[in-house]
Amino acid sequence: MKQLMTWMQAIVWLLMAGGQTAAWAQDSYPARPITLINPWAAGSSTDIMARAIAEQLFKQMGQSVVVVSRDGGSGVIGMTVLMQAPADGLTLAFTPMTPVTIQPHHLKELKLSPDTIQPVCGITENILGLSVRSDSTFKTLVDLIAAGKSKSLSYGSPGPNSAPFLAVDDLGRHQKLDLVHIPFKGDAASIQELLAGRLDFATSIAASAAPQVKAGSVRLLAVASERRHPGFPEVPTLRELGIDVTQLSFAGLFAPKGTPPQVLAKLDAACAMAVKSDAVKEAALKSNQILAYQSMAQWDKRVHDEFVKQGAAFRAAGGVRP
Predict the structure, then answer these.
(1) How far is 55 from 241, CA to CA, in rounded Å?
(2) Starting at the edge strand that comes first in sequence, how are the strands of the sheet with 91-96 ordered?
(3) What is the predicted pLDDT for the residue at 21?
(4) pLDDT less than 50: residues of the chain
(5) Which pLDDT value is given to residue 72?
(6) DSSP string across 45-100
(7) Taking the CA atoms of the chain, what radius of gyration do you get in angstroms?
(8) Which of 63, 86, 136, 141 is in the most buried spot, having the most CB atoms within 10 Å?
(9) pTM listed for this prediction
(10) Which residues contact 234 (CB under 8 A, 6 or more apart)?
């Protein structure tokens, strides 16, 4: 009996020691440098914000945060890498919701979803826009729509089933336009093709086209969000033009599913502080991005809600979107 009690006491001690070790490991987080995946093109607005956030996480947590670009598949490649990474908080990703909320409905074998990764915090709102060259005959969106009803128009997007693409896809369906979609790897490539005169218009995050808009080489015709872009207050929303099309895009941090709650809490708190920092505010201002912090609970709910909404939209369209 005494020997049994000794064994039981040993087991209890080991369990307590194991729990203390795990707690110590989480309290010491991060013990090594963090990798922050950018699932979009290097130099994109997502990349710019990822690097600004990385610098602030380093200042708060004392470990370097290295941003790596793993672009392709409209964010799917980078987010798949995140999904398969160890759930220790040492691999994160910063991205718009698209690869998690939209792509799973279009790609049958894709395992990404709000249930296979962990939303950490929301950081920005991406207002989506439609742009033409400054010398285009389309002075307004009304001009573009009129042309699209009588002839085929080509447009570029940052990739198949990206949020900018879906905004124009919905517009085309709503207005019965003849449109030819040409996908690119990121906003920059499509905007360059637009400037080269090989596209009739482009759809992108408005911030991505902002340098060309301000330089006078590109004209922003409309945005697909619920509000106007504060940097371009003269540009109307689609709804203001009488077109019932809205496509929202928010971006934030994600971690692998199963990341310890204590680690997630640290990341959420660090994220909140980062968004309040002067450096991140300045980066957002210079790149025409809109800060929109959402706590882990808020971000998790938004991602799940958007996943459900996009699934319903996909089924309503007959499940045939390209």
Answers:
(1) 40
(2) 65-69, 34-38, 91-96, 250-256, 117-125, 290-294
(3) 37
(4) 1-26, 321-322
(5) 84
(6) HHHHHHHHHHHHHHHHHSS-EEEEE---TTTHHHHHHHHTS-SSSSEEEEEESHHH
(7) 22
(8) 141
(9) 0.83
(10) none
